[in-house]
Structure formats: C-alpha cells, structure tokens
C-alpha cells in the first residue's frame, strides 16, 4: 500500500498479492489514510480466504466445515503459527492460481493482522466471524438444468449479500467512525445501516455483472423466478433484470447517502467509497442498456469516474448529480 509505513515480509506479501486477487480493491484501498489502508488490505485478504473456502466446489462438506473451524481459530489467534499451519494443512489440495498462493501465504496475512492495533483488529475479527457464520447456513437450493439457484427470492438474496458483503460494510463503517471520531464525527444507527446497504448494493452489482459466468459454473445467485429457464442459457428475463437492477439501485442510493454524510475533509475515505460506488452504478447502466453477457465499463469510463472523484470528491452536489444521472439513465434503459 503506497500510503502505509508498515514494513516486513508479511506486509510485502499482503501488498503484493492484493492486486492479484482484487484489482479493484488494490486500486482504491491506497486512497484511504493510514492506518485504514493497512487495515482494509488485511481485512480484504482475510475475507477472501473465507470466501475461497466457500467457493471451492470440490470440497466435501465435512472438509469445508473443518476449514471454517480452522480459519476462525487462526483469525482468533493470529500470533500462533500452529493455527495458521493447521488451516493450511487441512486443505486436501490447494486451489489453483492466486487463491492457492493466498492460502499458502495465510500465515503472513495473519502476521500482518496481528501487528494491527487492537481497535482495528476487533471490527475485522467480528466481520470474519459473522461472514463465516453466514456461509455455514444451509440455503435452500433449487436445481434446474444442472444450475443450482442459491437464493429463492429477493429477501434471500439480501440475506446472502449481507453475509458476504454487508458484514464488510459494517466493519468498514466501524473503522471509519473510529478514525473520524477525534474530529467530532458521531455516527448514528442510520449511517451504519447505510454502510451495510452499500455492501449489499456492491455485491448485487457483481451478481448482475457476472450472472452468466456463475451459471456457466453451475450456480446462480439470481432467483430462478427472474431467469429464463427455457433456453438453457439462464440469463435473467428482461423483466427479471429490471427487478434485480431496481432492487440494487435501492441499495446504492442508500450508499450515496452514506458517502454524503462523510465530512468533506475526509478526502481519502470519500475517494475509497466513491471508487466503488460510482463504478457500480455505471456498470448497472451498461447491463441495463446493452444486456451484455458480462457487463463491463471501459477504461475511458473509469478514467471519467476517477477524474470526477479527484476533482469533485468533496462536493456532495457534484458527485450526487453524477450518481443520479447514471441512475436515471439506467432506469430509462430498463423501460
């Protein structure tokens, strides 16, 4: 992380692998002031390891449960190298690619985590524990054509997104609030809830963007009632896509109110948040307008977004107008 002063092999590993497992977070985390940049880097990697346990399709249920137990024990005792080794050795075989490298280096992530101040580690540990608890919940599964539909309706989708992303929104909000407290920032319950809703909106944007990729690997987070089951391609119907995108925009509008409440003097925190929020609404616009197989915003659009953040990130009127303009375009494209 460019703005952190932390040194050592464990931090070199964390900074080095972050772009390999998440280019988007690697781009925006350095915008945060220290020590938030370090805390968010480690928090993302800890959560990504838990997510890898959930996503690895070849794991037997008993093995997955063993890995969850081992990972929670390691996060609870990050200074204990035995705990990290036990988690690593519980894997029958490491995942391929960068996720496997991350698991292999989990001890260095835990070492970096242990070096953080206690007011940072508490929210992160709570996040990982609640996330894993949610991942362990049995979710109703409807299977059609070899695709497992993991969320039965929008309420179930909200619950899923809470555990994998709303928990991160709450954790981040706790970190931000503590950082801003000396300058007089006092969050209320509504602000914390909007931080959680931001996590839901960002996760649902990813689901919209990647629904075809997910279906190709045999899973769908989009409820079956919103999907065309007849063609075998399992894309959302036009009406289903509209319902899903409108629902997502509802969360993202709460996220915009959350960002607007962050004082303008907190330029780094606002840039970090806007660096996720503005690309999300731009992605939904592409999905609504083009009905693409995998909605992506191009490099020029990303340049426009970060130029807006750099020039106007402290101005609620300008960033709010940019956001609402793209909301209106997205809704108009849906008809």
Write up this protein.
Helices cover 70% and strands 2% of the residues. It has helices at 9-21, 23-28, 36-55, 61-76, 81-89, 97-104, 106-114, 118-135, 154-180, 189-216, 238-260, 267-290, 299-312, 316-334, and strands at 142-144, 147-149, 219-220. A hairpin with a 2-residue loop joins strand 1 (142-144) and strand 2 (147-149). Mean pLDDT is 94; it is low at 1-5.
What labels would you give this structure?
mainly alpha, 3 strands, 2% strand, 14 helices, globular, 3-stranded mixed sheet, 335 residues, single chain
SSE topology:
Blueprint: H1 9-21, H2 23-28, H3 36-55, H4 61-76, H5 81-89, H6 97-104, H7 106-114, H8 118-135, E1 142-144, E2 147-149, H9 154-180, H10 189-216, E3 219-220, H11 238-260, H12 267-290, H13 299-312, H14 316-334
Helix pairs in contact: 1-3, 1-7, 3-4, 3-7, 3-8, 4-5, 4-8, 8-9, 9-10, 10-11, 10-12, 11-12, 11-14, 12-13, 12-14
